[in-house]
Amino acid sequence: MASLADPILRRRKSRKGQGADFIQKIAMVLAVLLVGAAIFAPLLTPFDPLQQSLLARLRPPLGFERYAAGHIAGTDELGRDVLSRSLYGLRLTLALAFAGAVIGLVIGGLLGLVAGLRRGWAEDVIMSLVDMQIAIPFTLVALLVLALMGSSLTVLIFVLGIAGWEQYARIVRGEVRRIAAQPYLEAARTAGAGPFYTAWRHVLPNLVSPLVVQFTLALSNIVILESTLSFLGLGVQPPQPSLGSMVGLGRDYMPTAPWIVLTPAALIVALTFTVQILGDWLRDRADVRLRER
Fold first, then answer.
1. CA of residue 38 relative to chain centroid, distance
2. Phi-psi map region of 106: left, alpha, beta (phi>0 left; psi -120 to 50 alpha)
3. 160 CB contacts (<8 Å, ≥6 apart)?
4. Spatial distance between the Cα atoms of 224 and 49, rounded to a whole number of angstroms
5. Could you tell me how many helices (H) and strands (E) the chain has, helices first?
6. Whole-angstrom distance, CA of residue 79 vs CA of residue 55
7. Do the Cβ atoms of 45 and 84 come closer than 8 Å?
8. How far apart are the C-alpha atoms of 217 and 50, rounded to whole Å?
9. What is the pLDDT of residues 155-184, one digit of tens each?
10. CB contact set of 202 (below 8 Å; sequence gap of 6+)
11. Is 248 helix (H, G, I), strand (E, B) or coil?
12. Could you give the CA distance from residue 200 to residue 206 in angstroms, rounded to a whole number?
């Protein structure tokens, strides 16, 4: 019976693998297109994203009546080109997400390294801060900080940077404690290696794989957080376009001009989908146990 069932199981696993590979290929193509569109937005946009034309306000996209020439995705309530604003908004959203993920990586990585190497009171304090960050919904914290300190880009980047640092800290602390029990690390200490040399030479190279995976997944969460804050009016401020602020400003025109919201909303969905799929793919490639299944 086992010999008859094995080919069937292998075929099922092969079909699942082919389906997963197809989705990953789509995600990779989308990632190239989205990053390329963000980088080359000044060359791809047909209009200035801040240029207003009240004579062309609320014009529908290509293929509908009252279409304004050149405005492929239509115009908003001030006559600004939706496609141009969406591409510039994608550019700003990606830049903010990347900056926030880097800040979170640095803060969480350093604190996790200290907690894993030092132990004692330093570990207790750091892990208590991690538990507090996990226990409190961060969206509420972000809303409070932005309401008190203002909605400048500097404050917004700071808020996005401290979102998710606890995940890096937990990962790094766990990996450091695992690595610290390895014989080669004990040998390095016996040979007289100091804590900084040990961390740089033996610990950090083993942290690259899990940190890259977490960084990728954190990008998606920060994109959603930035879009939420901008949608609520506490993120990127007008007239500077971001995907979340465009959705927020266009929600009042949904019954009569839904195209104002559809383009930036579609980019948010595509961006989060792409990053999540690539993050899962990186996790599977980095985890030996998952790769062997």
1. 15
2. alpha
3. 96, 97, 99, 100, 103, 104, 222, 225, 226
4. 22
5. 13, 0
6. 7
7. yes
8. 32
9. 999 999 998 899 999 988 888 888 777 777
10. 179, 184, 185, 188
11. helix
12. 10
Question: What is the rounded distance in angstroms from the CA atom of residue 280 to the CA atom of residue 93?
Answer: 22
pLDDT at 153: 87
Give the three-class secondary structure for 106. helix
**CB-count burial class (<10 Å; 0-12, 13-18, 19+) for 167:** buried
pLDDT at 90 over 90: yes
Q: Give residue for tokens 């980095």.
A: 286
Residue extents of the structural domains in the chain: 75-290
Q: What pTM did the predictor assign?
A: 0.83
Report how far residue 133's alpha carbon sits from residue 286's, in angstroms, rounded to the nearest whole number.
27
Q: For the domain made up of 75-290, give the CATH fold.
A: MetI-like fold (1.10.3720)
Q: 189: buried, middle or exposed (CB in 10 Å: 19+, 13-18, 0-12)?
A: middle
Residue reference for tokens 């040399």 = 197
